[in-house]
Design goal:
Its main location: cytoplasm. This protein is of the alpha+beta class. The protein contains 10 helices and 11 strands. It has 2 domains: about 1-150 and about 285-290, Ribosomal Protein S5, domain 2 (2-Layer Sandwich), CATH 3.30.230.10; about 155-285, Alpha-Beta Plaits. Bound molecules: L-homoserine.
């Protein structure tokens, strides 16, 4: 049996739609895999009642199939489904890393990314790798069609998760079909700034580079209280604030000294909007870890 802890992740980071991702220090999924003649799945933990155990419909079933590695797979969910914190990706990443180990497939972490992304397609309809890449490799990741670049970083973060559900399919449905050239130019500048900020581990540059005028405004409409929460976080010292992944979680980059205050003000702003929420004070962290 192999046990793997794979972290929650935040995709997009505003300016890097379907490209940027970051591993979060917490929360995480724990997945145990054991060899079997056919794949069976048990799910427990946060939101497990909403997750199908049929291997045809579960993200880890597609991973087991792609690796030709049938197994009994136990998923202990720490990452709430439909949160914007890479819930399905954490399970897919853990399964890919665990089954690779269990069956001695010898694949590199980077080679496991497209395999875990197949699991994402089962849930969201698109095999985007921007959550599975950081969950497998850790740090800040740039997922391109030809591979992944990963950068170690430890930027302090707050992720604030409201008690509402936004499905990735719905959030992808509001993404505009095209963009004006002036918005593209601005977002390219922001994305480049963010990437340099990650390489320098500079919360100011990372936050400055999170602005996105193409995808985020359309998705913000799906999250009650988003604008108020964003303003509150900036007032409390956040260097950048945006929607985490497809939402509804909101992510703020910051200096460590401001993190606790930012978490409190974001929670207050959601409460004022009539929305219960919880906040994780965290930072960019490690990728999937294997325990024998
Ligand atoms: N990049 C994806 C999206 C992440 O924003 O739809 C979904 O978790």
């Amino acid at each position: 049996m192999v046990t793997v802890r794979a972290p929650a992740t935040s995709a997009n980071l505003g300016s890097g739609f379907d490209v940027f991702g970051a591993a979060l220090g917490r929360p995480a999924d724990i997945v145990r895999v054991e060899k079997a003649d056919r794949t069976t799945i048990d799910v427990t933990g946060v939101g497990s009642q909403y997750i199908p155990e049929d291997p045809e419909k579960n993200t880890v079933g597609a991973v087991a199939e792609a690796l030709e590695a049938p197994a009994h797979i136990e998923i202990d969910k720490g990452v709430r489904p439909a949160s914007g914190l890479g819930s399905s990706a954490a399970s897919a990443a853990a399964a890919a890393v665990g089954l690779n180990e269990l069956y001695d497939r010898g694949l590199s972490r980077e080679a496991l990314v497209p395999i875990a992304a197949e699991g994402e397609a089962v849930v969201s309809g698109a095999a985007h790798a921007d959550n599975v890449a950081p969950s497998i490799m850790g740090g800040f990741t740039i997922a391109r069609s030809d591979g992944v670049t990963a950068v170690d970083a430890s930027i302090p973060l707050v992720t604030c998760l409201p008690e509402v559900v936004v499905s990735t399919r719905d959030a992808r449905g509001v993404v505009p079909d095209g963009a004006h050239m002036e918005d593209v130019v601005e977002v390219v500048g922001n994305a480049a700034t963010l990437a340099v900020g990650m390489a320098r581990d500079d919360p100011g540059l990372v936050g400055r580079g999170m602005d996105d005028s193409i995808v985020t405004p359309a998705r913000a409409e799906l999250i009650a209280g988003y604008e108020a929460v964003r303003s509150a976080a900036f007032d409390a010292g956040a260097t950048g604030v945006t929607i985490s992944g497809a939402g509804p979680a909101v992510i703020a980059a910051c200096h460590e000294r401001d993190r606790q205050t930012i978490a409190g003000t974001m929670l207050d702003a959601f409460e004022d909007a009539g929305v219960d929420a919880r906040a994780y004070q965290t930072r960019i962290g490690r990728g999937a870890e294997v325990f024998e």
